[in-house]
Design brief:
CATH topology of the largest domain: pyruvate-formate lyase- activating enzyme
Strand order of the largest sheet: 11-12-10-9-8-7-6-5-13
CATH class of the largest domain: Alpha Beta
Number of domains: 2
Helix content: 25-40%
CATH superfamily of the largest domain: tm_1862 like domain
Strand content: 15-25%
Number of strands: 15
Number of helices: 16
Length: about 500
Amino acid sequence: MRLTVEGEINRTYCQNLCLIFFPGAKFPEKEPEGADVPEVLLRTRTEEGVSISEAVILCGGRRTTGVGRVALSSAESADRAVKRSVGEAMLRAGSELMGAPPPWGILTGVRPAKVAAAMLAGGLDADAVREALIKEYFVSEEKAALLCRICSVQEKAKALAEEGTCSLYISIPFCPTRCAYCSFVSYATPAYLATIPAYLDCLCLDIEATCRTIRERGEKLLTVYVGGGTPTILSAAQLDRLLSTVNRAIGGTRLLEFTVEAGRPDTVTAEKIEVMLAHGVDRTGINPQILDDDVLAGIGRRHTAADFYAAYELAARSGIPVINTDLIAGLPGSDFRRFAGTVDEIVRLQPRNVTVHTYCVKRAAEFTERAAAGSLDGIYSYSGDDTAACIEYSQRKLAEKGYLPYYLYRQKNSKGNLENVGYAAEGFEGLYNIFMMEELQHIYGVGAGAVTKRIGRNGGKITRIFEPKYTYEYLRQHAEDAPDGSGGGAAKP
């Protein structure tokens, strides 16, 4: 794509606006000569206290234009006003080209609920927030109502995340196989899986060092989340060692929530669930993604729908209090019938949590590589085909059964520019998910690919500390950090 920006406006923001209408677009410094690619011109200026922006799109022999005007005022920063005027211009030009406006309007960030929450904190009531989302950010009525509902559900959880509280994330970046849609840093090759014992050695030391840091700072640990990857790729003995380390490291701390994300049904056993329960784990996830064997095989899952039912029954019979199931709408090879049937089955099982994701094109995923090689069509989609109908069906069906939407996030290049939403039976919301997604408290991350986030006072500046991305880098760093070369854990800065 050729993008030209004129005026004082952040280029990255302009690229994100383009991605709403042209998912998968790339922005090289110079396109090859003669390349037939969309062209976008965004220009902005300020006249007599008004930010005036114009967008021009040339694509497929068509030319569309849009203009945005936002009055500058003391109620918002000049930068935000300019962004809104540029966004309005791009939305008008893009909607004319595509024939329909995007459901999330000009909101481009991962955490749209934070926009609504800031309005509520500023004194607006829910009706005023909904109206502002529609009129100022061009969010659809349905999505604006969804955001306000989520903010309402989150109120109790937000009250728990007071100053001086924190949560702990523990990364297990290994999987039995890699899904074709996935770009997470998780490893499924025999060589990587062979590093699990050494990785666990370093991880346990890291957990102990991090928990010492938390105690020394006088912070209160509220939740622990073991994620991945697939944590239950660990054997029962390895899982017992990991969770024993956690319990020893946190001492007598009474957690509000202790989660181990099982994820893949083909890794779940009765023995591993017993280990979880013995160590106080009260939440897990067993994720079918979709209950259709042909689609499961196509996306690289090694399990069947029957395997999911068996794993879910094990967990449900064990008495573990909260089970989550992840679903993905819009997967290649799927359609509305398959997805709606999956939703119906999950509702019948009555898990306490259901997370509905929209298929998102990830740069490093197998599907993306296959599309680039010409062996897979249509993975990028502005309209989303029937994915919007899938998402709408899941929201309606879950609401009918009493599930409440409690957290939401969005990703670039998701089908139909749609969202990911977590739902819960009332009172069973995942606290860690809310704390992490809304950035309400410090999150300490340990393990390869984990990120520690320290939140400034009163929601101030966020400091991020990144662990090494790859397992072998993590092991090397810990070996170097230990004076005796034993791989000792290092306290978080």
